[in-house]
Amino acid sequence: MPAVDGQAEATEVENPPGDEAPTPPRVRRTPAPVALLRNSWRQLTSMRTALILLFLLAVAAIPGSVLPQRNINIENVNAYQAEHPDLFPVLDRIGGFDVYASPWFSAIYVLLFTSLVGCIVPRLLDHVRALRTAPPAAPKRLDRLPQHAVLTDHDGDLAAIAAMLRRRRWRVAVRDDTVSAEKGFLKETGNLLFHLSLIGVLVGIGLGSWYGWHGNRLLVAGQDNAFCNTLQQYSESRLGHRVDGSDLPPFCLELTDFKARFLSTGQPASFRAETMVAEGDRAPYRASFSVNDPLRLNDGASVYLLGHGYAPIIRYTDRSGEVQVSDEAFLTIDGNLTSEGVAIFPDVNLDPVTGARNPQLQVAFEGLYLPTAPDAPPYARSEYPAERSPAVMLFAYRGNLGMDAGISGSVYRLDQRQVDNGKLTRLGEGKLLRPGEKWTLDDGTTVEFLGTRQYITLSVRYDPGERVVLVSSVVLLAGLMLSLFGRRRRVWFRVGSAPGETSTTERSSLVEVGGLPRAEYSGFSDEFDKLVAATRPGGARQVGATEEGTD
Amino acid sequence: MAALSDQLLVVAILGYLLAMIGHAAEYAFGTRSVVGRAAIRPARELALVGAGGGGGSEPVVGTKLDAADVVAPAGAEPGFGAVGPGFGAAGPASGADGPKLTRALLAGRIAAALTVIAAVVHLGVVVTRGVAAERMPWGNMYEYLLTVTLVGVVGWLWLLYRRPALRHLGLFVTLAMVLLLAVAGLVLYVPIVPLVPALDSYWFVVHVATIATSSGILLLGAVPAVMYLIRNGYDQGKRSFPYTLGARVPAAASLERLTFRLHAFAFPIFTFAVMAGAVWAEAAWGRYWGWDPKEIWAFISWVVYAGYLHARATPSVKRPVATWIAVLGFLTMQMNLYGVNIFFEGLHSYGGLD
Ligand code: HEM
């Protein structure tokens, strides 16, 4: 503790005896291991170590901005793996793709916070002690202090001086012929609050990672597409260490409408998702949310709008006249919402007698959806994100879709291997369909483009640590400001008998005033002057004020 | 309005350029002026800084500040706090240095006046841009940099008003302004477009305003930081290139103190700005912190600046070392401003550069 103290207090000018804890006298020899432990602890809790750890923390954070991170963008990590097959495993082993969860990153902040606790606890105790001790006695020579003034003409009423100081919220002690006063303890209070709140922030983050969860998914408009909050409903999810699937609060969400407004340049102007929410026992209610304006559910989870796009409605009529409809989302590939996707019909052209699938006659369409198709070919890119002249370019495939092989295929892409090995064949050229148009394939079956549904991508999140982090942050900021702008300072007033010739009344005495700022404080001389002036209602005449007082 | 904004930018750059020339002239004329002499008396420099112009023609506001700034142990060395002649050409042009000094003084004052004019025009650039776009002019990197530099220059003028003695730093401030605005106009310029929905939030205004303010002040703070390092090297007898500049800048101790003041002022604002960003990120992306590249670098800057404040409060760390940490902090801020927008892909990719 003394080691820390000595350093931390050193910006202050003077440590009068009795104020700080005295170094305990060493009486007994300490055994070597204990001494080693104690020295290591002292090292760890020194400011120098804190500095080094802070610096290390900054350096350790850098790789996370250079390398793709799993928890942020898994696709980029996979792409990196494909691009750098040799480097990837090495980097992966040392946590390069999970920097902020890596052992070395954790080690740094755990050490830093240990150091912090070791640093702050003794200071806290010191501070509490200081708050309960009276301001120290006056030094012998007040004229040696940075601020000094002598008042003649004063009635020498120490009680009045003390009262004046108390009114100005100084802590005051009156001893014999002196008044000692001290102010500005909020600086250290702020410093302690600031550092303690850092721990609060860490706790909040920890709570979030233990008890929080989130899931992402895509939601196509329409009642039959509504989803309920279970783990299987998410395409991607993460549960905190202390959460399992059964802990997810029950609610269901249906997208009833999605409104997007675009400027003439195609830049989005506003989005809004209209939904129907069913939560617990409450009657279903309407709610809308948007970017920057999430849907706050009653159980604490929130629903965020991440993106949107179109899901073309494609109707296929097979050889036996059976009709099937697909409204799978097409993924957008550019700002004008050109979208790619597939419409897959594995259960068509079934055997009329047995009802069995015929693996040669499954049908699928690869499609390119253009909300605003150009007037003439090529029909490759949409010209505007809203549906001004929608059209879908379809490529038909027939054969074995490869869905029975047990490999879960993507709903956004055909199984390319089936195409490559000839089991799935493309039927001629693609065809552009506008809403309501029908295309008859070579076997007499038909495909029809009925229109589109909007879809949104959303994220459902719950983070119970948020509030803790927020409150800690507010305390952190308040503490930081107190700590940076607070100023601890002391003043002393000493009454002596006035020299005969300057005294004008019989009861006048000489009051000597000294002031000591305990940190850099540019306004102290002003404050000191004001204090001196306030010592007597009429203001006192100053004699022999130091230079600072006169400039 | 948009075209006016673009034209005003050119005027503002020209204004800063002229101011820079004025400061350079002051520098050149000011040989062996009081500035130079102040450097020869390191023992008294603390007192000199503060003593501004006892009866000089410069405003004396703030001189008191400086004198009291110095916390001396009881029984300070004699001469401490003595009212000396001002340095930084603040005092009256005394006979000995005659016309040379007056010319330097004149050049310096013209430079300061030009900076004020350029700053007003600069404000005009930002305001007309905002009016043309019908929103706060912080929608992309170009507009953001315009705002940051505006904050920086306003902070500079305020400093100059409080402490005329610092005027010699003007050369570096105006140089930085010319360079940054030129980069803004030539490299980062994008035509006006409205905000995308992702930026349409109150928190956007709060977050960006505070980030720009703190960045501007930190930008400004880097000037005395670098000058302190140069001056300090000069005082230690280094005479190679950057250190030669040290001959004509204010005393090391006052530069160092100014560096600290600016950083101590800006750090809480920066802290608040990061927090406001986190609140906004929670509303927009569902998490208050997600290690997006912009967030990573804000974290790095914050930690480095926290390191600076620690280092400065630790007597065993020498002041130049602490100041280097501040300079490092500044570099990380620049990395965040340019590097991250240009090199990395992230949610904050609002730069408007493709
Ligand atoms: C989580 C990492 C930490 C951060 C971000 C941090 C940040 C800060 C900041 C910004 C200040 C400046 C406020 C001021 O000047 O009063 C400060 C002051 C201080 N910090 Fe820390 N700190 C951290 C850890 C520590 C540790 C580990 C220690 C102990 C070894 C420590 C001891 C101190 C002390 C004693 C001061 C006051 C300096 C003074 O007397 O003015 N801090 N800290």
From TrEMBL, chain A:
Protein's cellular compartments: Membrane
Keywords on record: Cytochrome c-type biogenesis, Membrane, Transmembrane, Transmembrane helix
Span of domain ResB-like: 47-529
InterPro entries linked: Cyt_c_bgen_Ccs1/CcsB/ResB (IPR023494), ResB-like_domain (IPR007816)
Protein origin, superkingdom: Bacteria
Membrane-spanning residues: 50-67, 104-125, 192-213, 468-485
Pfam families referenced in this protein's UniProt entry, alphabetically: ResB
Region (Disordered): 1-29
Annotated membrane topology: Multi-pass membrane protein
Xref: PANTHER family: CYTOCHROME C BIOGENESIS PROTEIN CCS1, CHLOROPLASTIC
Name of the molecule in the record: Cytochrome c biogenesis protein ResB
Species of the source: Plantactinospora alkalitolerans
From TrEMBL, chain B:
Residue intervals passing through the bilayer: 6-29, 110-132, 144-161, 168-190, 202-230, 262-281, 296-314, 321-344
Keywords, in A-Z order: Cytochrome c-type biogenesis, Membrane, Transmembrane, Transmembrane helix
Domain Cytochrome c assembly protein residue range list: 138-348
Any Pfam family the entry gives: Cytochrom_C_asm
Keyword Transmembrane helix carried by entry: yes
InterPro entries: Cyt_c_assembly, Cyt_c_biogenesis_CcsA, Cyt_c_biogenesis_CcsA/CcmC
Predominant subcellular localization, coarse grouping: membrane
Cellular compartment(s): Membrane
Domain of life where this protein originates: Bacteria
Membrane-protein topology: Multi-pass membrane protein
Keyword hit for Disulfide bond: no
Name listed for the protein in its UniProt record: C-type cytochrome biogenesis protein CcsB
Protein's organism: Plantactinospora alkalitolerans
